[in-house]
Amino acid sequence: MERQKEMGSGNTSEPEYAPARTVNAGAHRVGISSDEVIEYYSEWSQDGKYEQDLCPERYKGPSIAAGVVAEYFHHDVSHVNVLDVAAGTGFLGEKLQARGFKHLDALDPAEGMLEQARKKNIYTNFFCEFLDGNRLPIDDDTYDCCVTSGGMGEGHIPCDGLHELVRITKPGGLVCIVMCEDYLFEVVEYKDRLEKLMQQLEDDGKWKQISRDVVRQYCFDNNGVIFNFKICLHNRKC
Length: 238
Description:
There is one protein chain. The protein is an alpha/beta fold. Helices cover about 30% and strands about 25% of the residues. It is built from 9 helices and 8 strands. It has helices at about 20-25, 35-45, 50-55, 60-70, 90-100, 110-120, 160-170, 185, 195-205; strands at about 1-5, 80-85, 105, 125, 145-150, 170-180, 205-220, 220-230. It has an 8-stranded mixed sheet, with helices on both faces.
């Protein structure tokens, strides 16, 4: 199911936003490697620069993701175990905590970002790991929800990372991916591959797509897309 959602009306293409847009684009430049991404974010996180550049007026992804997760777990969210994938400095964790979520863990490959996130006392466990398809140090069926906002892009989470999200999320749980819509077509890793893999996982009975929503001004003036998947019981279709 695909819908168009209205999310904000501010103009984030004003000249004063240009430097922040340029820095953000640097983290997604064509050909950037995963190692370069990690180094870039660790440096960007220092002295509050990342949080200043991607303030809520410019980057709405965490607010969008937190709203989606809260809507899915409409009962007592205080018992829901959540893994914030590509947690960064904790933007999404802050939004989830404000909505009553208490059991939050963070995964991010950039130690510099996690160093900033630790200061906020939001997360219980921290995993300095890259979600790339290799087995994470996390048991099967650990989380009620795995959610990422901003974790997809050039040199970021590859398609194979989806398999790990399926493995570590409990049956009936939610995998929520919030990303820039343009990356589906501009990033070679994702073009003609990411959504095909998502469909293949559904055909294989791993998960079921609940929704596919496009939102305006996800980051600066770029549209975002929200994918929501419910994890199926093992070896059974949803």
